[in-house]
Write a structure and sequence with these properties.
Order of helices and strands: EHEHHHEHEHHHEHHHHHHH
Number of strands: 5
Number of helices: 15
Shape: globular
Distance between the termini: 32 Å
Helix content: 40-55%
Strand content: 5-15%
Oligomer: single chain
Radius of gyration: 20 Å
Largest sheet: 5 strands, parallel
Length: 317
Amino acid sequence: MQKTVSKPYFLVGAERSGTTLLRLMLNYHPKITWCNEFEYAVDRMDNGDWPELDSYYTWLETHRIFQDSRFAIDTNLTYSELVNSFLCQRLVRDDKPIIGATVHRHFDRLLKIWPDARFIHIVRDGRDVARSCIGMGWAGNVWHGVEEWIRVEKLWKEFSQNIPADRKLEIAYEDLIVNYVDTLKKICGFIGVDYDPAMLDYVNSSDYALPEPKLIHQWKKKQSDREIQLLENRIGSMLVERGYSLSGLAPVKVNAVDKVLLKIHSWWGKLQFRSNRLGPGLVLSYFLARKLGITSWEKQSLLKINDVQRKYLKKST
């Protein structure tokens, strides 16, 4: 097995920003393999410190994405060596020379493990991201649906200032959709490989079709004026800074009472979504287990949740 990966590529951006589509395209390149949702490499690095290994092993036991990756854990390795070994295992498994991974949060911590890493940042119109997050059950309204987009974009703006120009590439989801071949050629040039039409073969083994222009700017048709106004109140300046035009609707004010009501509304919406998908009993079981600190019960509940999520994902592909 290859002992180390010194210069991996990381695809960073908010969830629901096109990272899955781009990851599929990259993974189908004959020379590139790509790991999905690699946050488990950095999530436990509180304040940038290495996590305690035994607790990390235990945490991974119920981490659905890690478990589905089928990576082996070598307990003789240090933390940085261990997470690096996951990339090495993927390289060996797919027998390709270039490795990358998608990381949606805490990607600033990656440099402590891979100081020479390269980064591809993808951004999507935050209004579309907010709408999509509601559909995933991560928020109950657009005001809270855009929170992670805000965090990620602010982090990238600060973090990228310290990354040399030849080690970072910024693309827009909308460009990937409208001009996908040209955008992929640009990405391939950054990675150091030629574009290959096989990158579009993902359509043969996933529920993702070829990009269509109708996939962009859906907020114009699927959001109410009030939702658009709320979003532009919160992220209007960030949208303009990233090259997106505002709707032209009259600005609205959001006071403290409005924010409290929006928070309650979002919480209720998320609870309803989880109850519908997982069942009220499982939601309550997991909540009580965590509240009471009963580790074995929490683990059992979480494993059941993972099984439900797998069944849902299987049905949607």
